[in-house]
Amino acid sequence: MSNSPGEEHAAFTQWAVSHGIKIKGIAPAQFPGRRLGMIATRDIEENEIMLSIPVSLMLTLDSIPESFVSMFPEGTSTQGVLAAFLTHGDPRLLAELEAWRSVWPDWEEFESSMPIFWPSRLRRSDSSVAERELDGDSVFGGPIFLPPSISGLWNSFEKLTGPENHKYETRYQNILSQQQKRLQNAWKQVLSVFPQTNWKDFVYNWAIINSRSFYYVSPGMEEPEDWNDALGMVPYADYFNHVDDAACDVTFNGEEYTFKATRRYEKGEEIYMSYGSHSNDFLLVEYGFYLDDNPSDGVYLDDIILKDLTPPEKDELAGQDCLGNFEITVSGADTNTVAAAGLKYMDRQDWLVYVAGASEKGLDERKTADIINGWIAKYLRECEVTIDCLSEGTKPGSTESDAEKEKLDSILARWKQIQQLCETAVNAVNAISQ
Q: What is the distance between the alpha carbons of residues 68 and 406, in angstroms, rounded to a whole number?
């Protein structure tokens, strides 16, 4: 059963109501062993609006002084400007946010949960320069603990290095390097305006914006190329925790955010919203948690498959928009992975007709399954190697601190999820070939 989260949350609720936020049948609650969340304080009927927040209370580029925004060089990220405002904004304006800021997570929670703030030996990635810049640590050797989709690195084999002829936009790959780059760019930009900025103060506010923002585009403006620039903070709504298929309809009409129940809730139930359909690796990096059951979870075989493809095969896949983002899920392999496997044995003309969806002539589902299973087997080998390393680090008597053991336990559980996902994917691929 949930408990009252504390006086500061009651005070913030009073502030929210007094400023025009409409709260109907919900409240923040502390769930044992987990973070704060939103709970139904009474029975809530289907299609009932539980929460509405006017845009005037959001923290966005439109809600802070233009004189502040204009100080930053062109190309400064929205996240960087908002974090800089929380760090260096007019104290009178920041005082108006004090009731809200008092209920935000503390630095220790981010440091514990988000890999970007972990010791360098735990968060090793293919962005070694960014790692050195982050906190001055040297980049240790030894095993890679974070999954390849996060770190871009492997323990059990060497991926291809050097320039590739074909570039493509990846999904949920090298996630940590991308996040580090965003943070470093924001840090350099804020230093150009406020050279005496304290690193820890700024990065705390950057993490707040990163983990608690909602989608927002200024009225009359087109969507930015980078979705990370389409964001704003929504007071009170940031209590909601995430599940993929949340029974909560979230809408923004330019004037207010509304949250509507899409099923009936009973008093005492936790109410979730969806942050979007994201893999567990993405959730871990961006928000500092992952789900036990995530329908959107998957892993990518790009490093494995690209190493197995010849240059002409890559050309063929690129020509049909099938190169890269080779994903497996509990349902099996995606169409790009199946296309890559078919290319390994099919006649070229038959393959072209197949990927166009016109004919399955020349397709041998058993051969396709065997090839894909061979690729997945390499990922399973990575699971075995890394799980062994992590298990050593979490044994009683190991030299790691309790804080590090907690992080290693979390990564170990994630690797076991990935192992199970790969095994389930093999079964799904085999079932299709039978």
A: 41
